[in-house]
Specification:
It contains eleven helices and 15 strands. The chain is of the alpha/beta class. Strand 1 and strand 2 form a beta hairpin. Keywords: Disulfide bond, Glycoprotein, Golgi apparatus, Membrane, Signal-anchor, Transferase, Transmembrane, Transmembrane helix.
Length: 449
């Protein structure tokens, strides 16, 4: 709005006019009418000028703040602004619009204020060999203060009461080797904040099937000891499971789990590390190959096959058995390979895992063997999922995130130094509590859909 300031001459002239009006009522009336008309005209002009100025200002503001555009990714429309380019704004925009987020891709970020979900004092269910608190693993205090941050969204922390509400009146089976047991024990420790289970089939064994029941929630959890997922046996009577060659019947699912799995609502399936042992492979009742055959004269005549061949066929067999089992109507969760982290040697010749913090995604990648296992597992999952009802097969993809966590294993801190144990330096299993707990954050995320 513009204002005109009178100079001294204009002010004197205006004052004289006002004096005349005061002495002559008629003249005052006539001129007052003229003044009203002039004022009305001036007011109208001012209103037009104000309206023009207002329009110009708003037009300028529209140019500075463009209208939202719609970005389409993966079939989902996501509202965004061109000016909102920071990661924080992108995560917020994606969350508000319900965009799909791949929780398997991300980084481990420091979380100094976080406390572990449980300790070795609050959870008596921890396997002694993964009790890193008890045996004083160095740096454990800082190792436990990292959280998984997916790119583009957030992964909620595990909520024990919410998980138990979800599985009330249901059952969950873990199929696999001792890492499957490690996973299940992590889950039980997480749930111990609400309820402790009862061991329904107490057994004094390590490599065997175990079952537990949560009475207040009528929830059963079980681990089936099936390291290859398919039928297997040792080539030589009295051989040692860890070292001696195994026969694998790749097209026959392991009866250890197939005879009892029908009644379960959820099956979490994995197998990987045992396939690196010497194996002789059979399909259709005939020898088809071997991997690190162990000097057996019959096996060495067969073609040498890489370990990932057996992983691929075993997963195909197990997933088909679940899909075609007439009594099983549950959900199948395929967990991908959790890589070991031996450095400067193997488990039997001086290898160790001494890291005390995570690596970043651009600092490491899956080793060749684990990368081949991962590819085989994902391929077979996708094939099974495409042949089943939507949502019946789910992928729990933990490989990339766990490749960054070489600091999360017991190493030599799964026993006292003076104890003679066969697996003295453990860079395969995971400390409890530890990075493995994120597997159950992801599991809850998957099951909630």
């Amino acid at each position: 709005m513009f204002m005109h300031v009178l100079n001294s001459q204009e002010f004197t002239k205006t004052s004289a006019h006002l004096a005349t009006f005061a002495n002559d009522p008629i003249q005052m009336k006539l001129n007052s009418n003229q003044l009203v008309r002039k004022a009305a005209s001036t007011t109208g002009l001012l209103l037009i000028l104000l309206l023009a100025a207002f329009t110009l200002c708003n037009y300028s503001s529209l140019k500075l703040s463009p209208l939202p555009y719609v970005h389409v990714s993966g079939g989902a429309a996501t509202a965004s602004r061109e000016t909102a380019t920071s990661p924080v704004n992108e995560r917020k925009a994606g969350a508000e619009a319900g965009a799909v987020c791949d929780v398997a891709k991300g980084e481990w970020v420091p979380d100094p204020a976080a406390a572990p979900y449980y300790t070795n004092e609050t959870c008596p269910l921890i396997d002694s060999r993964q009790n890193c608190m008890k045996y004083g693993k160095p740096g454990l205090e800082s190792i436990l203060r990292w959280r998984w941050q997916p790119r583009g969204c957030n992964l909620p922390r595990f909520h024990a009461a919410a998980f138990l509400r979800l599985v009330r009146g249901k059952s969950m089976a873990f199929l696999g080797d001792s890492v499957a047991r490690n996973h299940m024990q992590s889950l039980m420790c997480l749930l111990s904040k609400v309820e402790f289970p009862t061991d329904t089939e107490p057994k004094d064994c390590i490599h065997c099937t175990r079952k537990y029941h949560y009475r207040a929630h009528n929830f059963t959890v079980c681990v089936f000891w099936t390291p290859f997922l398919v039928r297997w046996n040792l080539m030589r009577a009295g051989g040692q499971q860890f070292m001696d060659p195994h026969n694998l019947f790749l097209d026959e699912a392991d009866p250890e789990w197939t005879r009892d799995v029908a009644g379960y609502d959820y099956v979490v399936l994995n197998g990987a590390k045992w396939f690196t042992r010497p194996t002789v492979l059979y399909e259709g009742g005939r020898l088809v190959g071997c991997s690190d055959c162990g000097g057996d004269p019959n096996a060495t005549a067969a073609p040498t096959l890489p370990p990932h061949y057996a992983v691929r066929v075993s997963f195909r067999t197990a997933l088909r058995a679940l899909r075609e089992n007439p009594g099983f109507r549950g959900t199948v969760v395929v967990r991908t390979v959790a890589p070991p982290h031996y450095e400067n040697g193997k488990w039997y010749d001086g290898g160790n895992c001494l890291r005390t913090r995570p690596m970043r995604s651009n600092e490491t990648g899956l080793p060749e063997t684990e990368a081949a296992f991962y590819a085989a597992q994902v391929d077979e999952f996708q094939a099974a999922a495409s042949a089943a009802a939507a949502g019946r097969f789910l992928l729990l993809d933990i490989s990339e995130m766990m490749q960054m966590r070489g600091d999360g294993h017991p190493g030599q801190y799964g026993h006292w130094p003076h104890e003679g144990v066969g697996f003295g330096i453990d860079c395969v299993h995971w400390c409890l509590p530890g990075p493995v707990d994120v597997w159950n954050e992801l599991l809850l995320h998957l099951l909630k859909g």
